[in-house]
Structures are given as structure tokens and as C-alpha cells.
Design a protein that fits this description.
Protein name: Enoyl reductase (ER) domain-containing protein
Strand content: 15-25%
Helix content: 10-25%
Largest sheet: 7 strands, mixed
Number of helices: 11
Oligomer: single chain
Organism: Denticeps clupeoides
Radius of gyration: 20 Å
GO molecular function: S-(hydroxymethyl)glutathione dehydrogenase [NAD(P)+] activity; zinc ion binding
Number of strands: 18
Cofactor: Zn(2+)
Structural class: alpha/beta
GO biological process, one term: formaldehyde catabolic process
Order of helices and strands: EEEHEEEHEEEEHHEHEHEHEHEHEHEHE
Length: 378
Amino acid sequence: MAMAGKVIKCHAAVAWKPNAPLVIEEIEVTPPQKNELRIKVIATGVCHTDLYHLFEGKHKDGFPAVLGHEGAGIVESVGPGVTEFKPGDKVVPLFISQCGECRFCRCPKTNLCERSWSSERYASMSDAESHFTCRGQAILQFMGTSTFSEYTVMNQVAVAKIHEDARLDRVCLLGCGIPTGYGAAINTAQVTPGSVCAVFGLGAVGLAAVMGCKNAGASRIIAVDINEKKFEKAKVFGATEFVNPSAHSKPISQVLHELTNGGVDFSLECVGNVAVMRSALESCVKGWGVSVLVGWTDMEDFSARPIQLISGKTWKGSLFGGYKSKDFVPVLVHDYMSGKIKLDEFVTHSMTLEQVNDAIELMKTGGCIRTVLNISTE
């Protein structure tokens, strides 16, 4: 509380421009204003969406920024009007807010929220206003969060209070990747007991989707990836079979049709590649097959032959696994602590904030599932 109401100077990894290494800088973080809280970030995962912004999206209005959106920390101080949180609370910052009042929050069909940064600045992946400055320049908060910083400031509608005994260097993964894949299977696809599933892409999101299929009772879970080193890890989460598209001369959809007597009941695309999205749809059985788009991209159009849908298939999208964020992140923390879902098994590397560029390179080359950056001590 010593710095409550004052500007904090701390270290953060700043993305000054696209296609360039992040730079560890000293930044200034403003005190929380009305309905805001300042969070000491303890740990954060490095997610593919961070890389997408840096190397693929590269929107001119999205820099300079502090990346990171898969974090967990401790409330340092709160602004006027904050009643739900107090200093010392363990929390997960959320890239999807839940104000509880807008038409989206009131609708049980969606987890979107009109108070989110994405409502108006979807392409730049940040709000126009920021609580950060560096070298006299405003620094954007990526996806409203910016967990590659020792401190961040969030509105209370975008923070989840979690169990006081939660291990922050694990539950940070519940800020994005694991709910995204797990919920896509459980909530969006609504995988049924005894069904046959295919998961395309075995990064953290894809492995979480495999875990979701298993927990939903699927009888066969076919893991699809061109990196066969990931197949052993997929077994840990419940995959029963493995297919490398590169090992076949036929389209992967045809391979899966032959393996499953006409196609899978559910397919989940966890890559963010429009060609793979089409393959995932075409891999489904006609009549009732459901294919879910999970991988994040906004760079290209996607397409399919109309007969794919006319024949009875369903093509759906999923954001953050369909979870209303403030309501369900605490539930998922409990599920981890009770052993219902895995988190430890996703973490293949632990590093410091100063090693952030090494962590990014690991993800670019497929050398990790999840790297957790230890930002501060509790």
C-alpha cells in the first residue's frame, strides 16, 4: 500500500514496433482511477496471440504496446468505487470483460461484452487509453491487459478474483489458452459421450480442446498435427489416435473419413489457419457434424462449398471457450485445484521477464507448449 495513489515505476517488455524483439524498459504505471485496480503481475504465459499481433497482425495503431494477456497477480491498490476487490486479493486479468449490464452480458448465448476493448479497436487489439508511459510516450495495453509488465491497471469488470491458495504460476494459463480450447469442446461444440472428435493443432489451445473432449466423454479423440513430437504430450490429455497430414498423399479430410466411417462428429481447429479451418469442416460427418473455429486470426477470408452446410453440418466459432469470464475463471481455478482439469502438464518452460524474447522464439519454432514468465515474487 506504500505506493497507493502514486505512479509506480517498474519494468515491462515493450513492443515498440512489429517484427522486432521486445525491449525491457522502465515504464510509469498510473494509480487506479474510479472502478479500477492496480495489479502486481506475478506470472504470465506467452500465448500465440501475442505473436500474432507482433508478427502477423502488425496493425499500425497497435504499437508501441506492452504485450501479454495470460497472467495472474495480486491487487496492489484500488480506486474509488471498487468494492469487489481489496489489496492482497489474488486475481486473473481478463481480456474479455463482463460488466454484467450490457445486452451481451445479459444474454446467456454469448460471452461478449460491450465494455471490452475489442468493441471499437478490434484490429489494433488495444484500447485507445492506457495507464502506461515510457520515455514520455504513451504505451498501449495489449488486449486491455499487458501482463508482460510488473504492474498493470484494469477496470474491475475485466478482473476475476480467485482462491487465495491458487498457484499463480499455473492459474495464469486460465487467462486465455486453456479456457479457449477446453471451453470450445465443452461449451461451443458441446461434445457428447461416445462421440468421435478430431483436434487440429496441438499447441496449448489444441491440447486443452483434447482435454475437453476427454472430460466430455468422447470415445475417440484424433489429434492432428504436423509435429509428431507433440503426440506423446497429447496422450497425457486424452488423445487416442494421431494423424500427421504431411505423412499422407490424400487430403486430411479424406484420411479422417476413412478412419471414422464417414467423418468425425466434432472437429476443432486450434491453429488459426483458414485452410485448416476448411479441412476441419470437411472432416466432419454429414448430417450432424459440428466444426468449431478456435484459432485466432483476422488476416484472410475463409471459405467452403455450400453443400458442406446444406448437408447438415454446423460451422461455429468460439472465443475464450464461450465462458463468461468473471463468472467462470474462478470456477476453472477450483477445477484445477480439485484435479478436474490439468494445468501443470501444459508448462514446459519457466523463464524470467528478461528472457521474454527467448520464450517468443521457443513458441515460434514449436519448441514449447507453454512458457510461463515469472514476473514478480508474491
